[in-house]
Request: fold
Amino acid sequence: MGNRGSVLIIGDDPGLREMVGSLLRCEGFATSEAATTEDALKQAEEQPPSVVIVDADLGGGKSAYAVYQELRDRIFELAGVFLSGRRTQAFDRVAADLLGVDAYLVKPFNPDELLACVRRLVERKVKRNEARAGNLAHFEILTPRQLEVLRLLAAGLSQKEIATMLGLSSKTVATHIQYILTKLDVHSRAEAVAMAHGLGLVTRAQRPEPRDN
Reply:
């Protein structure tokens, strides 16, 4: 059937993770699992998933809402589904809506409903990426220096580190970054990096070491 998209399943219940993962893999989705916040953030940053499924009944010190907020802060256009057997009140759904959660399913959930949610979210992401592919001309108008700055941003360097790497002032790097945002028609550095990764124009390179001047 082929890979139809990647799904990260987050929860401290291994039985639930395995059940959801098996269901999705049967439909051709690639899946990964995370039992802790730290593991979820690490996996999501290394390979941003098409969709995240979060068990809202997470135990431990951090709530599912806090986990999702951290993921949303780090992943451009995060698509998410919450599963819950305890948090079923109206205010729980409202809190999830305010975080940008796309679907909230109550346990025991209907497997077909979960699959339909994931399919819809993956298809939405594919369409958005296709629409962005039509904007490749934005990247063509970046100067070689601006593209170099973008690649270093994607590698995780700070503005100061980029300045050191390229032998520029921090103010000059800031100016290049502002031009990049304007040309790509985005509002943040994270969006610019996500767009570049999504279109395959910038790879997740190993973090370079600033060279001595």
